[in-house]
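Q: what does this look like with arginine bound?
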Amino acid sequence: MWGGRFAAQPASAMQAINASIDVDKRLWREDIEGSKAHAAMLAAQGIITAEDNAAIQAGLDQIAAEIVEGTFQFSAELEDIHLNIEARLTERIGEAGKRLHTGRSRNDQVATDFKLWTMRASREAADGLRVLQKALLKQAEAHAEWVMPGFTHLQTAQPITLGHHLLAYVTMLERDRVRIIGGALEAAWECPLGAAALAGTSYRIDREATAHALGFHAPAGNSLDAVGSRDFALAALSNLSIAITHLSRLAEEIVLWTSPQFGFARLSDAWSTGSSIMPQKRNPDAAELVRAKAARIGADFAALNAIVQKLPLAYAKDLQEDKALTFSAFDNFALSVTAMIGMIETMRFNRETMRAAAAKGYSTATDLADWLVRELRVPFREAHEITGRIVRVAEDAGVAELAHLPLSEFQAVDPRITEAARALLTVEKSVESRDSYGGTAPQRVREQIERWKETFK
Ligand code: ARG
């Protein structure tokens, strides 16, 4: 491709470090699209003839067919997808193929291809999250009023409903979706094609035409920025990284919930693995791997960020490594979402175990304090103190739940406490009472379920 300037062949390790075809062949579709738009524009501007354009369009279509059929020969000597396709085009159509690279460079070409790819992949990632949200919503609806312990510091805090807990993830994933789609579209606003190597070009090209043909909103207004920036990919990776952080927390809860110690849930056989030595085991490997994938995607972001931050403007070959990191992040993300969907759809919950755990640790103590405030107008700090003493009495007496402590024991601490107060201390009454907007009460959970159903329509 640049034989004119050199007398000798590159070292073989030079080729090994330089070639990116094994990775960037994945951009073939975008590369062909970009080339077709560019050639059509060159012809419309009278820079190449209509005949040359027709030959280029047909040649590129045939190359696309070869790639789909698997007959296209990718060659490392031709470095990357851009040179592979261009060389094959010239092989097929002759001289017209050599005119395609007029008024552009691989620098604006790769920035355009990669932006298109990232934009599309982001949309698919967001679609995957929607499917997961629907699976979570379905489980939330089936378990809207099932009681489980709510934790802070992983210490039993207050009873909550399982529906409420699952909807927390639906809510987080909605923000993730918005971030992923919003980020992708915003960052891809401007089309790099026509920025050429770095400075623009002296040909009378029509950048509006190529930008619009490829679905961009406008041509990029600064050619150095257009070829030298990768913040669209950084934004995509950071968005994925935040989203998979949420998946990783859910994965962590699946690991906890399915342990014999918690016993809250059971993964289906399809989403469990056995042990080679311990026959009783049902391991949550997929959930554990989602946690590990989260670490990797965060590292992909960190790596690309580190690559870009030391580069003087405009393009440098360091940027070639952007694709392996980005492809890997999107692949791991998609796989993780698929695994989460499978686990959530088929997970079964254990109502009795969750309820019993919710009642442990005097989880309804706050309800008693709230009763003292509401009914007796006791200041909250004082109510806290009285309730604390009652918890100590129950603990000393070996009574595990406040609702099971005899009324006389309550009254020994504060004679004003009535049976009506004691009756409020079951986990069911407790969750029912937390009916403020966004609270855990089954009625509020159902309200949110309806809202999400409306959103997902
Ligand atoms: N394969 C290259 C990349 O992905 C394409 C751009 C090459 N540009 C250059 N000036 N060598 O970055």
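Residues 195 and 223 are 5 Å apart (CA to CA). The pocket of arginine is lined by residues 20, 24, 80, 106-107, 110, 315, 317, 319-320 (CB under 6 Å).
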